[in-house]
Amino acid sequence: MRQTFHRRALPTDAIAFSSPEGRGLFSEELASAGLNGYFPLAEQFHTQSEPAFCGLGSLVVTLNALSIDPGRSWKGPWRWFAEEMLDCCAPLADIRERGVDVEEFACLARCNGADVEIHRGDASNLDAWRAALAIAASGEAVVVASYDRAAMGQSGSGHFSPIGGYCSATFWMRSARQSG
Predict the structure, then answer these.
(1) Which ranges of the chain have pLDDT less than 70?
(2) Is 89 left (phi over 0), alpha (psi -120 to 50) or beta?
(3) 163 and 175 in contact (C-beta within 8 Å)?
(4) Are 144 and 174 in contact (CB under 8 A)?
(5) Are the beta carbons of 61 and 162 closer than 8 angstroms?
(6) In terms of Cα–Cα distance, which of 52, 66, 34 is closest to 144?
(7) Which helix (H) or strand (E) segment is 29 a member of?
(8) Which residue ranges make up each domain of the chain?
């Protein structure tokens, strides 16, 4: 029988949103205006429909939070982004198997109306990262992080997640993750 998981424990350095500490941090961020970018993302929260769709799920949340009109119907009269609509750069069957990389994510965002800038960690510095997080926290733009889950003590490998909040005093950020 293959191994399955239900609610894997977070790494020790991650804080569960619903924990007392997570609620306290949320209150601090809210009081410091570090969550202005969180609410548009939270309104559009979406759990990815396929294991390899973290990029698509994050992009759906982002495009809908930015109020970008897809220019085509999702279902019935509703114009709304959904994962199955994000097929302008690669076939969904391919994405379902392997996910997307940063360049494909950017391509999908651009062909669906978003302005995109890619900033790579190895070509940047901590001050630039903090500045990007501050912009995301202000609600002026959305920052989607692409990172290696294994490097953070999580299961899996590459992952995408919109950043919904940031506290400059503690350098703590709130991720709006699409999967468990």
Answers:
(1) 148-156, 171-180
(2) alpha
(3) yes
(4) no
(5) yes
(6) 66
(7) helix 20-31
(8) 39-175
What's the topology of domain 39-175? Answer: Cathepsin B; Chain A (3.90.70)
What is the C-alpha separation between 31 and 153, in angstroms, rounded? 30
Bridge partners (DSSP) of residue 78 are: 75
Per the listing, tokens 């960690």 go with 121
Task: Work out whether strand 158-167 and strand 172-175 pair parallel, antiparallel, or are unpaired.
Answer: antiparallel
Given the structure tokens 């703590």, which residue do they identify? 172
Residues 148-165 have pLDDT tens digits of: 665 666 666 778 889 988
Structure tokens at 56: 């698509």
What one-character DSSP code corresponds to residue 69?
A: -
Residue 171 neighbours by CB under 8 Å, 6+ apart: 130
